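REVIEWER CHECKLIST
Item 1: Sequence provided? yes
Item 2: Single chain? yes
Item 3: Sequence as submitted:
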Amino acid sequence: MQNAFDDGYGDIMSNDKRTDEKIDVKSIFNNQSFNKDIFNQAFNNENADEYEHDELIVYDEPQALPSSGGAFQELGQTKINDFTGGRGVDYKRAYTKENKFINPDKVKYREYKNINELKAERSNISHKMSDEDKRKYEQRKMREEEKERKRREAQQEIDNKYLEQFDKLNQLFIKDY
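Item 4: Structure as written out by the authors:
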């Protein structure tokens, strides 16, 4: 019987070119004494070719982490696209191009003098949804309901397959008895 965990990342992991070679810290920091600025400069130089995005990704609202990796699993899953959970981040998310760094020099953001300045600005934020926000919220809610309906249907199919398998085995045992 098939399982949602049957498809994994074995092919990605076995073809990975990463090695556990020892990192020469002195050469990375050009034999300079270590501080935050030198680290940031070395980090940006080392990862310059890996910057994929010029902008931050804006999420409408926080996303719950999947519950895989624990002593339980979500029923009705037919395919798992993200194995994040428990104690770590999904291998594919961590090591593929889809989640590379942003270039901090190309991102515009405001710096605050102190926490009170930040609080003052945030106190002016309206928490009333606009018509556009309400429409997006309703669409997201409908997508989530559809996803839940499909998950339940998939679980019903899985349950029926197990029941069918049980009935076949039960008939074999009864016949032999």
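Item 5: Key structural point noted by reviewer: The chain has a mean pLDDT of 76.
Item 6: Recommendation: ____
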